[in-house]
TrEMBL record:
InterPro entries xref list: DNA_Partitioning_ATPase, MipZ, P-loop_NTPase
Identification of the protein by name: ParA family protein
Lineage of producing organism: Bacteria, Pseudomonadati, Bacteroidota, Bacteroidia, Bacteroidales
Length: 139
């Protein structure tokens, strides 16, 4: 077994959430900015899980962006140029309710080799499963 295979086997995915009990405090914006910088600038393999029911702002933003790319030739060409570069494809964004987040994280980790999973959590501890999900975070 070579060193690269050893490194891949030893790699553990870290779970990270920017959390606060205040809605509208910028959790989604911080998640998008940090994920974008780490993924697109530094090449860090990551995925995002949007658990902020019912708005799912991050997931909906990705869906809007995807539709805009399909409808606009300039954006379509720019996306093609970006994605043909190694490691530059868009990072995955999944949505789920907060109580399903640990299961969604396990599914994502099994599907790909991610160093980080970011969680966009709701701005209240009154959501079902929030404490169990927060307990799963590394940071």
């Amino acid at each position: 077994m070579n060193n690269q295979q050893n490194d891949d086997m030893d790699r553990q995915t870290l779970n990270v959430a920017f959390a606060t009990q205040k809605g509208g405090s910028g959790k989604t914006a911080i998640t998008v900015l940090v994920a974008g910088y780490l993924h697109y600038r530094l090449g860090c393999p990551l995925a995002v899980i949007d658990c902020d029911f019912p708005q799912y702002s991050l997931y909906e933003m990705r869906e809007r962006d995807s539709r805009a790319v399909l409808e606009n030739e300039y954006l379509k060409r720019a996306a093609y140029e970006q994605m043909r570069q190694p490691g530059r494809a868009a990072y995955p964004v999944r949505k789920c309710r907060v109580e399903q987040a640990p299961d969604t994280a396990r599914e994502l980790a099994a599907e790909g080799c991610y160093d980080l999973l970011f969680f966009d959590l709701p701005g209240t501890v009154n959501s079902a499963g929030i404490l169990r999900t927060i307990a799963q975070m590394d940071y």
